[in-house]
Amino acid sequence: MAKKKKESRVNEYLWGYAMIAPLTIGLGIFYFYPIFKVIFDSFHDVGAFNVSKWCGIKNYQKMLHDPMMWQSLENTFKYVILIVPIMIILALLLASLLETGIRGRSFFRTVYFIPAITMSSAVAMVWSWMYNGNYGLFNIILNALGFESQAFLTNPRLALPAIALVSIWSTVGYNMIILLAGIQGIPRSYYEAAALDGAGGIKQFFHVTLPLVTPSLFFVLTTSLISTFQMFDTIYMMISKTGLAMEATQSMVVYFYRNAFEYSKKGYASALAVFLFVIIMIFTIIQMKGQSKWVNYE
């Protein structure tokens, strides 16, 4: 009897491991291997034909003395400071408004969510047309109001805020849906109790909605920080590679991509990727440690 039980348990383990084997192998090949490969390459001088030569910490030393790397890192932090707070505030306000029972809620949810599922190339094409210095929609409006046309995508001072606006527009709908789901999960009894105590809509928002939606806010904040640190497609497709605006707008990921695939410096690009990974990990750990002070899971 004991032998049969043991054989049955072994069979269960074998079937279990067989079921998870495809996913485990896939993660190993497409997730864990690239991580270790990037770390490995960061200590090597990897050329255009993937010829690898050990160079120790040379790539990291070069990175610390690279003005363009520091400029790209500064640009990345500017994107984070500009995009994340504005996007979260807008997403929370839109989610709260859609939960008030206004007409056409389903229509507005769809309209706000469409940018999140639109291809980056299509988004870049449309916004590039609107930002065009000669016939763009924004300049048509400015000219109609009596202002001069602006070179939004070639002026180094305007290009970064212009890209940040596109990113906010693209992501606010997705985060609005997440926050809306969090708001809908709040029991109505809390609002009824607050109304009985004389709390109006604004007080209910700050004393009921905001504290109880913090788990969703924490998720949105964490994912938004990570995705903003990894900004690439919008910048790369909308900004000219040879213009002055590229230096003022390129993020760490764009700089990594250009080193890896344009300058054929894959070892140095790997060091940039590892450095960015460490930065993102530090910010994520800080958020995880600080969530107990402001996130309410009750």
Describe this structure in words.
It is a single chain. The protein is built from 14 helices and two strands; from the N terminus they run αββααααααααααααα. By secondary structure, the chain is an all-alpha fold. The protein folds into two domains: 2-41; 61-294, Orthogonal Bundle (MetI-like fold), CATH 1.10.3720. It is flat. It starts with a helix and ends with a helix. 26% of the residues are buried. The mean pLDDT is 88.
Can you identify the CATH superfamily of the largest domain?
Answer: MetI-like
Strand order of the largest sheet: 1-2
Helix content: over 70%
Number of domains: 2
Q: Might you state the CATH topology name of the largest domain?
A: MetI-like fold
- Report how far the terminal alpha carbons are from each other: 48 Å
Structural class: mainly alpha
Spatial extent as radius of gyration: 25 Å
The mean pLDDT is 88
Shape descriptor reads flat
In short:
With 298 residues, this protein is mainly α. 76% of the residues lie in helices and 2% in strands. The chain folds into 2 domains: 2-41; 61-294, MetI-like fold.
Key terms for this structure?
mainly alpha; 2 domains; 2% strand; MetI-like fold
